[in-house]
Specification:
Strand content of chain A: 5-15%
Helix content of chain A: 40-55%
Number of strands of chain A: 17
Shape of chain A: elongated
CATH architecture of chain B: Up-down Bundle
Shape of chain B: globular
Largest sheet of chain B: none
Oligomer: heterodimer
Largest interface: A-B, 64 and 70 residues
Order of helices and strands of chain B: HHHHHHHHHHH
CATH topology of chain B: Formate dehydrogenase/DMSO reductase fold
Chain lengths: ~900, ~350
């Protein structure tokens, strides 16, 4: 943000530095060890009076001069050159912190060049002792270069006490200084053998060649132990969290670690092979193969070391994108572009949104990500984001649960600009509706069943208990909710003192035409045995019921129920309709006479927005359902973040129910007791990606309740002045209430998910009341004190004590009528006119029995043939 | 946009800026001397090869022995001033480098090619025959190109008002071609290098450091001729350069600052004295005068930089977070390094005599 950024796109993402650095480190380490190799062999030649060997040493020194001084020296300067262009802020920091270290290194560089020139040009002309002395100066100078640069490179990964005291020496002699020095010295000596093979392979004298090949093999073998030992110590010396990033968290490093463990023994074995008498033609080729192996080996090591620094370039001091760690709080507050020097878009408007986003990409992302390039190409990584909301959520979550990448740095508006740039300009998607089309309301025809107030003796009330049941039809991969809706009914015999009828009658339910065969619409029954361990006949739900049948009496509630009816929101015509109508009929068992018929909507939706972030789009009618792509990406993300192998399992035909590991009271699964319960896990995880959102933006990203969507789960009159968050809290508050309970239960994962969440409705996390999902829920009486008109719209943070206190389970004060019988389903309490499939669809019974869409009993004479005088059901029921 | 708003915040330095300033001036002097011998030497060898004739060919051959050293040390001696200039003016030079990143990045790759070209020219001098002129030309073109980029960067870094061009070109392909002082400044360095390299050849002849069978006296004569002509041209280019500078900066040397004016007069007088000594073929005298002139020129160059940056930055603005022990460590290392190098050179020359015996 301090410096301009070279806009590299294809060659971005560190490609240039990788290119220069990998070749440089190989040759430069060879240069360090080479001095010792030369003088040792020179001495040996003198001692054994071996003219052939001496001649070899001289030739090798010419090769050495050309390779090390020209190539190594120049590419070394090249690294400096390159980092100054790619990351000037970090370069400046390293230069200023270690200027006299660099300056001292320069002195050794001069000494190295002078000594190497003299060594080469006076070979055979200088007194032997002096010549060897010059060789020693060369070796020591070169090794001192390593000594100095090793301190500075080590500092970048493990600055140690420097972070606190800013002392040159603390940074230089950092925690990995010594192990790294030993490792690098080992590798330097090993490489002498490796490069020795190259010059030896071209010797004509076979005996001499074999002798030198063996010497070189020994030069690989002996320091190899130093290298392996130093390397092991080095890994051990890397502190947390860097070592965890290297070993577990980095998506890139894993492959390099595997490569490293394979290539190291290969290098050793290949080198030992050279000690055997082999055909010269083979040696001439194979010596270069060994150099290639060494290059891959060293490249992999350097890549791992560099990646271990993520998300920093200088650990705990400067991020890879040139932002000082100390500046981040100010940047978050004031804005990245607002405080950046090299942008023309300090302020973001609608007009410059994409340009500002592009600048943010350049400043914050391009240091590590190329565009259509060779290294860390951004395009495949963001391909799945077809909308700015999902991209924004991803950016929001960066650096929170996985520290491999830095946090997004800047304001919410800036993050939004970056998300829009990525989706519009990189993914070339320009869909203002973000793949979620605006669904206009329509009136599907319904017939209100007849009710004759004068003649009819019975009132039949029926409802669905949740107001909306979601299903995840991602069956071949995983599910979190099977098709399973609960229908309730209560039959009232009208009279002066109305009576609830529970005996001698049969209550049946019948789905509307078009919805009779759910098994033809979803693949749930193909995988039910794997998902739930239940071998279900197609069309039969997990409660043993089909979409039409007979309800059972549930004595506690004095109601009839049809639990877990497997209805799906897909009529046979291939459209999406989350509000199928069921006909409920009460019949006298003895006479077979129909006592009363009514209808109720049984809402069920697959408009679950996983695809908003996981990609893949909608499967059905462009508005709902899971595609394979979405389902797989969810699993891939879980595998990546939690080390599972769910993708592999799914591909082997073994999809899983999420709640089989993550316990869930609503499904009654116990799960793995060490893991978070399902609602806590899924909300807690995703909350980290959806903080600071307005209203119910976060809720509707996943739940079927977006205002312009097809389902609009929350459709009662409450939705005209409230949204999800009034009762359930914001995404953060809601998640924290669930996570706190898990934290108290000693679940390991809770703290991690809570770390980056701030309470919003209350002052602090401490003020949030923990709760068990599905049991401790907001209560209607939080606002409607004493059943009066609500005086507040804030129902968050006061929870029902147990399941019996839930609205869907409660009765009136006579323990007679269930709340929902008269007031309608949760989320769709009467009057509920905001149903996109028809304004009356949720109000059939009030319309049937009293001719309006108010709660049942709005006119007491629906049941009471004589107007009652006492408020028997609940206070204020007569509005006296 | 206010150009000053684009200047990055500098990092703190560990000892007062004067230390770095002295080191910068000292190491830049070393660099410029060796660089001149390298570039000018190549140019003289190329001209000699084109002109042909025995002594001219032998001069080219003499260069072939010396050229790899000069490239090695020109780069090596360039490292230190580049380090110290980054310490003092990092916020300027990093920025201008990024603006011309593509060109700047190309430098070290091409330099490797030029370097290998020089080695081929050296090791294969005879076997290449007449085609060696192409090898020589190849490396010289690269070196001239690199010099041109350096002139671009050194002028771009001191003119933040030109940096806004970045907003129309972020690919790193900017240059400072519109600057009227760019070409005279560049030529001032190139022609200067020919003059110094002429002296270099003359010194090689004078001290009999020849390795080829070139006649040392002929070498001195040729070297001093190149020196004299180049110096004459150099004086004219110097005026062009001076007049091409923005008036405010030009005036620093024409009465605006007594220090600057004295430096210019000194340089001018010394230039003419150098011409005279060149004409008289007084190798040692010409060398001493030239050395003093170069030192004066380096200080003038620095004054130009200070004058350009005057609206934005002064070295005394740099924040010092004192830590002296690394400086002491460096100075000790430097002293040991110098002693070792001195000793090694003594050994090398000793053996040279031995061999010549």
């Amino acid at each position: 943000m301090n410096y301009p950024v070279w806009d590299l796109t294809t060659y971005g993402g560190g490609f240039l530095i990788a290119l220069v650095a990998v070749v440089h480190v190989l040759v430069s380490h060879f240069a360090v060890g080479g001095g010792l190799f030369l003088i040792t062999l020179e001495k040996k030649a003198y001692k054994e009076d071996d003219a052939g060997l001496l001649d070899y040493v001289k030739k090798h020194s010419k090769f050495f001069l050309l390779v090390t001084m020209v190539f190594s020296g120049m590419t070394g300067v090249g690294i400096w050159w390159t980092i100054a262009l790619l990351n000037p802020a970090a370069t400046s920091s390293l230069i200023h912190t270690f200027v006299f270290g660099w300056a001292a290194e320069w002195v050794f560089f001069v000494a190295e060049i002078v000594s190497l020139f003299i060594y080469f040009y006076t070979f055979g002309k200088m007194d032997r002792k002096n010549h060897i002395f010059i060789g020693w100066i060369y070796f020591i100078s070169a090794w001192m270069s390593l000594f100095l640069i090793n301190g500075i490179i080590g500092y970048m990964l493990t600055p140690g006490a420097w972070i606190e005291n800013h002392s040159f020496w603390s940074g230089f002699f950092n925690p990995t200084f010594w192990p790294s020095l030993i490792f690098r010295t080992g590798i330097s000596l090993t490489l002498c053998g490796v490069f020795g093979f190259v010059t030896a392979a071209f010797l004509k004298n076979e005996d001499l060649r074999l002798k030198i090949m063996r010497t070189c093999a020994a030069w690989v073998a002996v320091p190899f132990t130093l290298m392996v030992g130093g390397g092991w110590w080095y890994f051990k010396a890397i502190p947390e969290p860097a070592i965890t990033i290297i070993l577990e968290k980095s998506p890139q490093i894993a492959d390099y670690l595997v490569l490293l463990t394979w290539i190291m023994p290969i290098l050793f074995i290949a080198s030992m092979l050279m000690a055997i008498r082999l055909p010269n033609s083979f040696q001439k080729v194979f010596c270069f193969v060994i150099v290639g192996i060494a290059l891959v080996y060293f490249g992999a090591f350097e890549f791992i070391r560099e990646s271990g620094r993520h998300p920093f370039i200088i650990y705990d001091h400067m991020y890879a994108n040139q932002v000082y760690a100390k500046d981040v709080p100010e940047v978050q507050k004031a804005g990245f572009l607002a405080t950046a020097k090299w942008t023309e878009h300090n302020e973001i408007t609608d007009k410059n949104l994409l340009k500002a986003g592009r600048d943010l990409f350049k400043f914050q992302c391009s240091a590590c990500h190329s565009v259509d390039g060779y290294l860390n190409d951004i395009k495949p990584l963001v391909k799945k984001y077809d909308n700015a909301f999902g991209m924004d959520a991803k950016l929001n979550g960066l650096g929170k649960l996985n520290q491999y990448m830095p946090h997004f740095m800047g304001t919410r508006t800036e993050r939004w600009a970056l998300a829009n740039y990525i989706v519009s300009d990189l993914n070339k998607i320009n869909d203002l509706n973000m793949g979620n089309p605006i669904v206009e309301a329509k009136e599907l025809p319904i017939t209100i069943p007849p009710f004759d107030k004068e003649k009819d003796e019975y009132v039949l009330l029926a409802w669905n208990n949740l107001g909306m049941h979601c299903i995840s039809d991602s069956d071949p991969f995983w599910i979190l909710l099977p098709p399973a809706n609960d229908i309730y009914a209560q039959l009232v015999k009208r009279g002066d003192s109305p009576e609830i009828i529970t005996e001698g009658v049969e209550i049946s339910y019948q789905v509307q035409e078009g919805f009779e065969y759910p098994e033809k619409q979803v693949r749930f029954w193909e995988f039910a045995d794997k998902l739930l361990g239940a071998d279900l006949t197609p069309g039969v739900g997990i409660g043993g019921l089909k979409v039409s049948g007979v309800m059972k009496l549930e004595e506690d509630h004095r109601a009839f129920t049809a639990p877990l009816v497997p209805v799906v929101p897909y009529p046979a015509d291939g459209s999406f309709n989350p509000f199928p109508i069921f006909t409920i009929t009460a019949t006298d068992k003895a006479t077979g006479k129909v006592l009363m018929t009514t209808k109720t909507v049984v809402p069920t939706s697959s408009e679950m927005g996983c695809k908003n972030c996981h990609g893949g789009g909608w499967r059905v009618a462009g508005v709902a359902g899971f595609t394979d792509e979405t389902s797989l990406d969810v699993l891939a993300a879980h595998d990546k973040n939690s080390g599972t192998n769910l993708v592999e399992k799914a591909q082997n035909g073994e999809p899983m129910l999420c709640q089989s590991c993550h316990a869930d009271p609503v499904l009654g699964t116990k799960g793995d007791p060490a893991l978070l319960n399902f609602p806590a896990a899924i909300h807690g995880w995703h909350a980290n990606f959806m903080t600071d959102l307005d209203g119910m933006q976060a809720c509707v990203a996943c739940h079927p309740s977006r205002p312009d969507g097809p389902t609009q789960c929350f459709r009662s009159h409450h939705s005209e002045f409230m949204d999800c968050t009034n009762c359930h809290g914001t995404m953060e508050d809601h998640s924290l209430s669930l996570l706190k309970k898990e934290l108290e239960a000693g679940k390991k994962g809770a703290a991690r998910l809570m770390e980056n969440l701030q309470a919003r409705a209350v002052d602090s996390v401490a003020d949030i009341n923990p709760r068990t999902p599905w049991i401790n829920e907001p209560d209607c009486l939080n606002c409607h004190e004493e059943f009066e008109m609500g005086s507040t719209t804030d129902a968050f943070n006061t929870w029902t004590e147990g399941a019996e206190g839930l609205y869907r389970n409660r009765h009136d004060q006579m323990e007679a009528m269930m709340c929902e019988a008269c007031h309608g389903s949760t989320h769709a309490v009467y009057p509920a006119t905001l149903n996109k499939f028809g304004a009356n669809r949720d109000s059939i019974q009030p319309l049937q029995y009293q001719g309006n869409d108010r709660p049942i009993g709005n006119d007491c004479t629906v049941c009471h043939t004589v107007q009652p005088e006492f408020e028997g059901h609940h206070p204020n029921s007569l509005r006296l | 946009m206010n150009p000053a708003a684009l200047i990055p915040a500098p990092d703190a330095i560990s000892v007062p800026w004067g230390w770095f300033y002295v080191l910068l001036m000292l190491t830049f002097l070393l660099h410029i001397l060796v660089m001149n011998a390298m570039l000018g030497g190549g140019i003289i060898a190329l001209i000699s090869s084109l002109r042909g004739g025995e002594q001219n060919t032998l001069l080219s051959k003499e260069l072939s022995y010396k050229w790899p050293y000069t490239i090695a040390f020109a780069v090596n001696m360039g490292v230190a001033p580049l380090l110290f200039v980054q310490v003092l003016y990092g916020q300027f030079i990093y920025t201008s480098s990024v603006l011309m990143a593509v060109w700047w990045f190309s430098i070290f790759g091409l330099l490797i090619l030029a370097y290998y070209g020089a080695y081929i020219y050296d090791f294969k001098f005879e076997s290449l025959g007449s085609s060696r002129i192409f090898m020589l030309g190849f490396s010289i073109i690269i070196l001239l190109y690199i010099g041109f980029l350096f002139t671009n960067n050194m002028t771009l870094m001191v003119q933040p008002e030109k940096w806004q061009a970045y907003f129309n070109n972020q690919d790193g392909t900017l240059l400072n071609l519109s600057d009227p002082s760019l070409f005279p400044r560049y030529l001032h360095f190139v022609v200067g290098s020919v003059a110094v390299a002429g002296l270099f050849f003359a010194l090689v002849g004078h001290f009999r450091f020849t390795k080829s069978s070139v006649d040392p006296e002929a070498l001195i004569a040729k070297g001093m001729t190149y020196f004299t002509y180049a110096t004459a041209i150099q004086i004219l280019i110097g005026f062009w350069f001076l007049l091409a500078l923005p008036k405010k900066i030009m005036m620093v040397f024409m009465g605006g600052s007594s220090y600057g004016t004295i430096l210019l007069l000194l340089g001018l007088v010394l230039g003419f004295v150098a011409l005279y000594t060149g004409y008289k073929k007084q190798v040692i005298m010409a060398s001493i005068i030239t050395l003093v002139t170069i030192i004066a020129m380096i200080f003038m160059r620095d004054l130009v930089r200070i004058a350009y940056l005057e609206p934005y930055f002064q070295l005394s603005d740099l924040v010092v977070e004192p830590e002296y022990s690394p400086l002491i460590f460096f100075l000790v290392t430097f002293a040991i390094g110098l002693a070792l190098i001195g000793y090694m050179i003594k050994l090398a020359f000793g053996c040279r005599k031995e061999v010549s015996k």
